[in-house]
Amino acid sequence: DKEVRAIFLRLFAQLFQGYRSCLQLIRIHAEPVIHFHKAAFLGQRGLIENDFLTKVLNGMAFAGFVSERGPPFRTCDLFDELVAFEVERIKAEEGNPPKMIKHVRELAEQLFKNENPNPHIAFQKVPRPTEGSHLRVHILPFPRINEGRVQELLQEGLARSQGAPPATRGDKKCVVPAGPPVGMFTCS
């Protein structure tokens, strides 16, 4: 699973290398608008007549990508690092499948570590029942649930959740690395 995701991550990093240099921040509105200059991106990469990439850039998914990843100050992730710092490595590995596979496995391992930072905590062993435990007769009946008390607890929980601030992730925001300009990349 992680290796397939790593392959797609690498593919999209290759497709969108240099995209940050074609972002324009427009501040005439109350909230800044981020615009992606498609013609400049395709022209500088020599892909003006590439139907596939043109359709990708015109799609709603790419518009969401630009609005989510366009701000210059946000939480950075593995994709940002690939686009900004791994340009030369990806280029060098194009003709060398063993190096490419090694890189994909490294990315897959990073994806796994990002999702499971403490894998030893996630799995708890359930203790085996002691010998003869099935013969014990002191099993207590399951207590009846007090419906009124359940409703009280639900109402208290709802009141607390409505008054509490929204939960946020603990990720630190940083300036997103721009990476090399899009003019460096020419594709065939």
Largest sheet: 2 strands, antiparallel
Tertiary shape? flat
What is the average of the pLDDT values?
81
The level of helicity is 40-55%
**Which structural class is indicated by helix and strand composition?**
mainly alpha
| Gyration radius over CA | 26 Å
What distance lies between the first and last C-alpha atoms, to the nearest angstrom?
29 Å
Q: Which series of helices and strands comes N to C?
A: HEEHHHEHHHHHE
Give me the number of helical elements. Answer: 9
Could you name the ranges where pLDDT drops below 50 across 5 or more consecutive residues? none
Percent of residues in β-strands: 5-15%
Number of strands: 4
If strands are numbered along the chain, what order do they take across the biggest sheet? Answer: 1-2
Describe the 3D structure:
This protein is mainly alpha-helical. It has a domain of 128 residues. It is built from 9 helices and 4 strands. Strands 1-2 form a two-stranded antiparallel ribbon. A two-stranded antiparallel ribbon has the order 3-4. A hairpin with a 6-residue loop joins strand 1 and strand 2. Helix 1 packs across helix 7. The radius of gyration is 26 Å and the shape is flat. GO terms for molecular function: guanyl-nucleotide exchange factor activity. This is MTMRD protein. It comes from Pluvianellus socialis (Magellanic plover).
Tag the structure with descriptive keywords:
two-stranded antiparallel sheet, 9 helices, mainly alpha, 6% strand, flat, 188 residues, 51% helix
